[in-house]
Structure formats: C-alpha cells, structure tokens
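Fold it.
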Amino acid sequence: MTIRQLMVIMAFSVLAGGMMPGFAGSARGGEPAWVEVDSIPDHSTFTYDKSAVVRPAPGMVGVVTRLVYLPAGKAETLELLGNVKKYEGLASSFFSYDIDCKGVKSRLTRVVHQDGEGKAIAEFDLAGKTDWEDIPPDSRLDMIREVECK
C-alpha cells in the first residue's frame, strides 16, 4: 500500500467518523440494523450496524459504520480522491473500527467503497496496519462509543 493510498483511506476515515462485503449482515448472520448517528443535508448520512457490534474483549468494541454520500458529499470526496475514474460510481463507504472504551481510542481495520449497486469499488484490509488514535470529543465515532461502551 502506498502512502497516497493510506492518506486517502485516512481522509475517508475522518469523513466517516473519525458495508464491507464480508459484513453483509449482522454479527449473528441476520439483516443489518443501521442506526443513524448523523446526517448533513445534501452531503452524507452516517450510520452504524447495531446488530454487528462485537465485544472481543472487556473494554473493547468492534463496529461497522456506513457513510452514504449525497451529491455535495460525493463531489467533495471525488475531489479529495483526485477525481479518479474508478470512483465515479461511489455511493457509500463502510469502515470497520476497533474501539478501546477506556482509552477513548480507535483504530481503523477495514474500508470498503461501493457503487450504487452494492458492488465493491475498492477494499482495504488495515488490520494490524493502523495505530490507535484518540477519538475526538463529540465526533461521529465518539457518539457511537458513548452508546456502545456502556
């Protein structure tokens, strides 16, 4: 993975909170239960799959988030990506995070960008490749942490 690819992934991460094909349903194999966290008119809607939340260890939570692009958000994201033709059909991005509840930190573990038909445009497995980062107060990811780390 090049530094540019990693920087683009991190930029997406900031937009997201800063659906994977393998996360098509809940952690229990059912349908996703998307819960809206935040919405910006004409820009994006940010949700997470409540049914896919996992608790792999005490004080740790794993979440899958979804960023659905609306016209202004898609235009901004395509510009950020340098208007690469590959992303023209971008409709949504899915981000998988590990959250350290006590430390108020997260690390991005996977990113998948999909087109309007749900087909993957690009996938990045970041498990073991990203560092723990502080979760900014009042951010989208912090809102999820407050609910899921109780």
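Strands lie at 34-40, 44-49, 60-69, 90-100, 105-115, 120-125, 133-134.
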